[in-house]
Amino acid sequence: MLTAAIVTAAVLGVAKVVRDWLILRQVRAAMDAGTSEDRVRIGLRLAEALGGGQSGPAPEPPAGEAVTPPR
Length: 71
Known about the structure:
By secondary structure, the chain is mostly helical. The protein is built from two helices and no strands. The chain has helices at residues 2-33, 36-49. The longest helix is centred in the N-terminal third of the chain and has 32 residues, at 2-33. It starts with a helix and ends in a 22-residue tail after the last helix.
C-alpha cells in the first residue's frame, strides 16, 4: 500500500513538471513572436495565474510605445 502511494505521488509529480514545462514553452514562444504590447499582456496574465496579481502601480510601457490595458 505504501509503495503504491509513493509511486502515485511520483507519477503525479512528474506529470506536473511536464505540464509546467509545456506551458512555459508555449509562453516563451508567444513572447518571442508577439509585439511589445503582447509581451506586456502575457506577462500580466502569467503573473495573475501564478498568484502575483497586481500589488503595486501598473508597470510602465516600453519606451516609445503605447500599451493599452488588457480587457
